[in-house]
Amino acid sequence: MPMTRKSLSRTFLAPWLLGATLLLFIVIAGALVLNLVRLRDSFAWVQQTNKALLAISAIQQAVLEAETSERGFLLTGIETYRDSYIRARDALAARLDGLRAVLADNPEQIAHIDELRLLTDMRMAQLGRVVELGPERMREALDILEQARVDRLTERIETSLSVLTRAEQALLIQRLSKHDRESLAAALITACLLILAVGSAAIAAFLLEHQRAVTRQQEADQRLQALQAELLRVARLSTMGEMSSALAHELNQPLAAVTNYVQGSRRLIEASSHPDKSKISTALDKAAQQTLRAGAVIQRLREFVGRGETDKTVESLRAIAEDALALASVLTRDRPVDVALSLDPAFDRVLVDKVQVQQVFLNLIRNAFEAMRDQRERKLTIGSRLVEDDMVEVVVADSGPGLDALIAERIFQPFATTKADGMGIGLSISQTIIQAHGGSIKAEPAPGGGTLFRFTLPCSDPIRQHLSFSPAAE
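RE: above sequence
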């Protein structure tokens, strides 16, 4: 069966779809990797913000500790407060450097840090002068503190730290919001690509399965065509044999009569006084010899046809019947027939010539389909059972109008038919095939109406099946 342009396009489309599906899965994998990278960046941004907030808090704590130590030393003169101030001052400078390193990628924040450093330097200078004066020069120290209150350096430091904190938090929110939007878009694109990939894979799988189904159907059609050709060949050969046998039978009688007439004429001419009787006798002798020769040829032809030689193998009876049903199904396309195939699986193996027995099934099934064509109820039943002499009996029954009484007695004779376009040799061929297998075939009215044919075939394992056979099973 040649492939159509549509089937060819499907054949070439499936590999392309598989390639596109693979490419889509690669793109999806890339999108997933990109999302993982973005997630890592988000985590890094959160970590950076946490580090910045911790550094800001540490700077605030250092300023507070420096001011507290300065007050304690001024009021008590205890050196511990002086040492604590010095540690807080040194720590403040280190923490400002650390904050600058964390926010090095943000010029605006760097400007705020430089402003904060200026304020903290001024404040630390004031506190350092107060610590240097100490309790001994309390009045001068108080003047410096008063000036610090007027300058409001501490409030300005707190304000600068708050600006840094809010800016860093706002930047984190902005980054996370952008990441969320990009992640959502990437997720939607990935989902669409995934749906497209799954759809492409499903379509490709469907096309591949359809291609395999078409291939299987083409192979089945080719096997069916080969089987039909083989059955037609056997049918032609069998038909030729039956026609030859029938013709030989019909010609033998007139040939025998011709021989008798020639011999009688020779005797008459010999008893006469005809002047040319010698020539006439010679001619009659030659005519008699040719007549006998023709009879001998016909006899040899009949013996050849009547030999019934078959090539027998072990076959499945169900498989043969199913093949014949498949071949005959063309007759039931416009008028379906209810077919019941109830062959006994215990006696499925038979020793037959497969093609010839298929021809028997085909003849009986085709006749049944044609007989039931105009019936309201169209039902065909095919069954089997084990009978005596290690033979399997097959029953083919239809619900047609039944046997015609005018032809019932000679239904298996060649050229006996009631069909206007029939040759009347199908059942004769079937009988010849069955008899060549050592079986028999007969026709009878079906109990519920219609026609029932019975024929027998040899079992493939007579000993085992004979032991398993019981008359009660009938």
